[in-house]
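Q: Could you write out the predicted structure for this multi-component system? I'm mainly interested in how the pieces pack against one another.
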Amino acid sequence: MRRLTWYLGVMFCLMPTLALAAAEYSVDSATYLRFQQYAAPGFDKKFQAPATQYLTIDATKIGVDGLSLHFYGWGDAVMGSTLPNEDRYNGNLTYFYLDYRLPSNNAQVKAGRLFVFDGLANEQIDGVSFRTDLPLGLTLSAFGGAPSKLDYEKQTSVTIAGTPVKFYESGNKGDTIVGGRVSSRMAGILELGVSTLYEGGIRTVISNGALVSGNEGFIAPGSLRSYRQLVGGDIWLSPFKMVDLNGHTFYDLASSGIAENSYLLTVRPMEKLSVNGEYTDQSPKNYFAASNLPSLFNPTINDKMRRYGATVTLAATKAVELSVDYRRYNRENKGNSNRCGFDVRGTFVENKVRTGFSYHRVTGADVAPVASITPATRYNELRGYAMYDTHTYVAAFDGIAQLYNQNINGRKSAFELLTSLGYHVTPQLLVSGDISYGQNPDYNDEVKGLLKVVYNFTNEVKGAHK
Amino acid sequence: MKFTRLIAIVAALAGLLTATVYSVHAASGVSLPASHPEKLEEGRVSCAECHEDQIKGILKPFAAFNHSTQFILNHKFYAGQNDQICSACHKRSFCNDCHLSKEEMKPALKYGDRPDRMIPHRGDYMTQHKIDGKIDKGSCYKCHGRANNEKCMGCHR
């Protein structure tokens, strides 16, 4: 929270100056007020109304072409009672960075708190990232800095062999992170990429009170490490105009094994028809190796997870799309599961009316019970929605239901119905309210209300609706 | 941080900066535009409706980026190689509607008024997550394995 306050302070000092210097800027604000009541046998009822504010600011062409500033964060205050282990005030700075795009070669430099999504990297860092195209169809990107820590990590220490060791309970972030990707492109046919990542100084972690990983040089039994190191390769291959192969393989050097293979083959025999097949496998030992929640994502479990399947998507008309899918899941120590069904979506009246319906059948493996739910991993899922957006009024209806083959907590179904109504006070300002009602195996009745105020202002004169 | 590691990082960043400057002068390639040059309609776009050829900045066909259901389900492959093409139309915060290190409200709650958006965990997910987690725990890990799992820790300790 202290770091968040520091960032916000800097932002509010810098922002007015930068906004004045920016040729284009946009502000998106969304305020949510929820109304909730909790009741449990033997306890007093608790009412609370959390208010959550999301804010996005983008200022572009700050002084020079290509220089922009981006901010996104949220804050939350709970009015009324708080629940056990719940903070009254909460917040998160998601990103706050300067971005400079050079005039050619897709060259770009970012600095600040930012997300890196490149090759195998999917990281939130406080640092710097670069990318550029190079001659001969090569591209290069890299990043470095400190991983953004989770603010719910609890710093504590234990004494091991007479030496105090600091660690972060529920944490998994290190002091330093660096990584990058190099790729080679053949126009319209092939892109091959190689990426890597190293995160050091992880002082983690604990599961059930036992230290399983500590400072450098103190790696206890278990699978977690004081560092994280991955290498990976990715491919896009299109030997014919109608065929694409996308995919990646990631190898975890810290735990010495392939963490994930994931590949997708797409065939478009006609403009309106696309058929794809996918295959993914993951090894818990390597894929879960860097989890901060090993009790749930257990890297020591002897299992192999695979999923594969196919989807056929047909744009029947410009307004209607039909999609049929099948997916099979295999876990070596839990058995096979299948999911299949279809999804129909429609957009009508110049996109003002959007509607959809889907049905899926899931036949899960009969696996060892957790609580009282299994073996009810077999169910039908139905969903239907419709919305009407006139740009003055917005109305939406959404319904979803799961129909289980067997009872879960004495109930054979779960459903939720949601209605939303909104009014554009001005083109930039939308006020809307949602109310939902549901029944499910955990709650006899569940009623939720939400009030939402959205303000979007931009002086950008081109570009898509972002 | 160890001194040698610091040196390695500084050297790597210096090398990259040099490469960046070199490439700007030597490669003179075409860049993607920072934003799409014309206003687009709301809702899902089909790039191939207007463009028949390749996206010059990344040398891939426009048709590969048509926003069909299968594209949206598999967008990780496209974004992992070419997130600059995403940012021509989407603000970074659009990704963060779902992908966050810490989130207070589940995306389906934030966007109850947008049922047309493909957003995870529609309906009440308390019961459903126990079933989905058994069938395919790997898909939970992507978002909740290393972050955004403070609430998971309430039960899974």
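A: Regarding packing and overall arrangement: The beta strands of chain B are 54-55, 60-61.
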